[in-house]
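Q: Give me the 3D complex with zinc ion.
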Amino acid sequence: MSSLPSCPACSSEYTYQDGSLIICPECGHEWVPGGDSPADLDAETVKDANGNVLQDGDTVSVIKDLKVKGSSSVLKIGTRVKNIRLVDGDHNIDCKIDGFGAMKLKSEFVKKI
Ligand SMILES: [Zn+2]
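A: Here is the predicted complex, encoded as structure tokens.
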């Protein structure tokens, strides 16, 4: 009966409109019809483990020991990584680390300093 879209988060049909937002009363999801949903925006923004937005040139520290691909060394928790560069992909941080060289990290395993 309603022309409103179902909730993309829980598929509920009982959505309602509030201004430019569509709101799902079942799970609390809110989004803009036809536009970027908050989830889409998240995908374009790289965030660290604490949810802080990361940018090119930021300095971060590693929050857990990480195995370095193709070597037996481990990137220790607390390692500082300077001047990161954000890239697309599963490993979304491009960086150079003293003693390791150029490598890629996942943003979920670092925090902004
Ligand atoms: Zn929902």
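A quick observation: The chain is about 5% helix and 30% strand.
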